[in-house]
Amino acid sequence: MIYDILQKKRNGAENSREELEELVGGFVRGNVPDYQMAAWLMAVYFRHLSGRERADLTEIMLQTGDIIDLSEIKGVKIDKHSTGGVGDKVTLIVGPMVASQDVVFAKLSGRGLGHTGGTIDKLESIPGLTTELSLERFKSIANEIGIALAGQTGNIVPADKKMYALRDVTATVDEISLIASSIMSKKLAITTDGIVLDVKVGSGAFMKTIGEAEELSEAMIDIGVRHGRKVAVVMSDMSQPLGKTVGNALEVREAVETLKGEGPSDLQELCICLAGKMLELAGTGNSETCLERARSSIESGKALEKFVEMVRSQGGDPEVVSAGKRKLPRASIMKEVLSQEAGYIASIDTEGVGFVAMMLGAGRRNKDDKVDPSAGIEIFKKVGNYVERREVLGVLHTNLEEVVEPAAGKLFSAYRISADKPTVPDMIRKIL
Ligand code: URA
């Protein structure tokens, strides 16, 4: 009986696999009502799940939908996932980096929601490029050139969609076991050889502290191991936006610059670390040699060539690489935001910056909103930089005249300026 399953969890006992099947399966089929699932989620929030329960829940969730079998694609396939942040254009860079080193990167990505962006929105700012690929086409592009990036098709983990919607309205999103099972069910539903997780830490991330990030990372590694999948984690800083741009076309431009070896140092460091880990997980060498291969994929121009191949094969205009700005959508309004005081940038409210980008049109408040590919923010000053009074902190890009002034005020308020020079957080916080 569902009542007994809830009572057990409420009292801190473990649910058996059969009980979890009855609960989750029944919920997806519509036999278990929202109020019972909500009660169980709240019980989990306070009582948590054991390693065995998490692994069972993950498997039960992933089995409610399609399994994407990539075994027809030749070669070692490594997936990558980020727990989400602001200015995170890493997938556009590490994908071509590893594919240029003969490791296949066939990734299904999502769209942005709220203050965080999504790879699919970024890619679609490239004129002509489509991310709506049938599974057959997706596999055939990956087989031909070693990289394909598509939107999630079909019916992957419907249990997660239904459970997440309920978590969202019952204040039960931020529980480690539930986050870990949600993320890993979607990753394990795609049959790659290994997964590198970029777990973000800081004001712009789900996990605000390194302790929480470690707990989530260990939970996800444990689920992966129990399912016989290789998993590595890089915990990276999200206490300020990543790189110097937030917004779809602006981020594509920055990704291209990074692939040319001209990217901002924080973004470059993270991409080399993640691509190195992906190559290592693929069994192409030890950590040192893989980091070296990651670096040389950029220095040799091979990663950039692979990016061009990917854009072309998905119908996009490869001139975004050579003609940059001129080929990407541009906003009609660009507004400089000036600092009203002098001092060091002590911190940036990253989530706040993400919401400013959303106001400008770069993101979605609701799932069905349209994004403006040209909208976003260029960030000129980051933590540790000195700013003079009336010097530019950033530039807003938008087509919405009415939001310019409030957005400018909000961007300035996201900055905390101090007379003391702060310590700049390390980009790579920990590797597991
Ligand atoms: N991302 C997910 O996919 N699921 C969560 O629960 C939280 C973040």
Structural overview:
- Helix content is 45%, strand content 15%.
- The chain folds into three domains: 2-47, Transferase, Pyrimidine Nucleoside Phosphorylase, Chain A, domain 3, CATH 1.20.970.10; 78-323, 3-Layer(aba) Sandwich (Pyrimidine Nucleoside Phosphorylase, Chain A, domain 2), CATH 3.40.1030; 333-418, Aldehyde Oxidoreductase, domain 3 (Alpha-Beta Complex).
- With 432 residues, it is of the alpha/beta class.
- α10 links the parallel β4 and β5.
The CATH architecture of the largest domain: 3-Layer(aba) Sandwich
Determine the strand fraction and express it as a percent band.
Answer: 15-25%
Q: Which structural class do you get from the secondary structure elements?
A: alpha/beta
Strand order of the largest sheet: 1-4-5-13
Instruction: Average the pLDDT over all residues and give the rounded result.
Output: 94
| Biggest sheet architecture | 4 strands, mixed
Work out the helicity level.
40-55%
CATH class of the largest domain equals: Alpha Beta
Amino- and carboxy-terminal Cα gap: 40 Å
Number of domains: 3
Bound molecules: uracil
- Mind telling me the CATH superfamily name of the largest domain? Nucleoside phosphorylase/phosphoribosyltransferase catalytic domain
- What letter string, H or E per element, gives the SSE order? HHHHEHEHHEHHEHEEHHHHHEEHEEEHEE
What's the tally of helices?
A: 17
